[in-house]
Amino acid sequence: MQYRRILLKLSGESLAGSQSYGIDAARLNDYADEIGQVVKRGVQVAIVIGGGNIFRGMSGTSRGFDRVKGDQMGMLATVINSLALQSALAANGCPARVFTSIRMEPVGEYYAKEKAVDALAQGQVAIIAGGTGNPYFTTDTASALRGTEIEADVLLKGTRVDGVYDADPEKVPGAVKFEKISFEEVYRLGLKVMDLTATTFCLENRLPVIVFNMDQKGNLLRLLTGEPVGTLVHV
Hints:
By secondary structure, the protein is of the alpha/beta class. It has helices spanning 12-15, 25-40, 57-61, 67-91, 113-121, 139-149, 183-189, 196-204, 219-224; strands at residues 5-10, 44-49, 96-100, 109-110, 125-129, 154-159, 164-165, 177-178, 180-182, 209-213, 231-234.
């Protein structure tokens, strides 16, 4: 396998599948199957998942929520998604533990690097929920932070598109896809691979990012076995 330890960032919106809200059972089971396959091949997998399919803090502020309260609600949404994924993984025969960035035992264990790394060493998936535990930070930034903390080889950002383009491929038919691109070029071209804080964190800590389409079955395994899937963002 190409990588020994990965941090997989999953989109909350993607969990909704064909629905506009909530968790689509078929999509959830597809994810659990894909993740289980790579774990069985010896890859250590940590996961950070968004909560946009349930609640997004930024959109909440436009509806009158205090930003801090809205972000806290978003953190709880990531915990719901994490518990659902843990359950799906367990049903698929893949052990997983949920860690939370804020204390909420017995819902999840309070996150610490040592506990997450120990879970990975035992062949368990470490699902790290609750974002960074602080308002004003996205789950992209949480992914960059946790990926650096657990010393992941790469951050895999699963999205609905198959890589990084010079324009939004869902809006611009002629958008050109990059096979690889540096963090500096991402800055220069103003590409929205991740939010600026997350991008800077990955650059400063030399954590490469691969953006790929997680919704296409088999992509995660193909990527990890060295096939040219997605776009590599490198230092």
